[in-house]
Amino acid sequence: MDAMNVVDDSSRQWWVSDGRFSLVRPFYGLRIAPILPEDSGVYRCRLETDPLFALTMSTASVELAVMGKLTIMLVVPQ
Fold first, then answer.
1. pLDDT by residue, tens only, the chain of 78 residues
2. Domain locations in the chain?
3. Where are the beta strands (DSSP E) in the chain?
4. Cα 22 from Cα 28, distance rounded (Å)
5. Rounded to the nearest 5 degrees, what angle is found at the Cα of 64, between the Cα atoms of 34 and 46?
6. pTM attached to this predicted model
7. CA pair distance 68, 78, nearest whole angstrom
8. Cβ atoms of 40 and 56 closer than 8 Å
């Protein structure tokens, strides 16, 4: 799955390329259900309020390791 094309909220129009992925409002959490081992990888969230004023702190990354049906490990960089 191309992580850059999974979920978008530009212009308040929502699209998801895989029905297992959805955004949870009001804080824009990412829900993946059912989660599969191939969903493992680095997920990035980027907040853009104005392209001219985009800051590095408006981007966050997290590594997700799906190890089995009931084991999920979320690694948050410090």
1. 454 444 555 555 556 678 888 878 777 788 888 888 888 998 887 776 666 665 555 677 889 888 876 655 666 665
2. 3-75
3. 7-8, 15-16, 21-24, 29-32, 41-46, 59-66, 72-75
4. 9
5. 100
6. 0.60
7. 25
8. no
Which pairs count as long-range contacts for 43-51, CB under 8 Å and 24+ apart, including other chains?
43/3, 44/3
Query: Coil, strand or helix: which one is 5?
Result: helix
Tokens, residue 71: 């084991």
For the chain, what's the residue count? 78
Provide the token pair at 28.
């824009």
- For the record, the structure tokens of 67 come out as 């190890």
Closest to 35 (Cα-Cα) out of 78, 73, 76, 75:
73
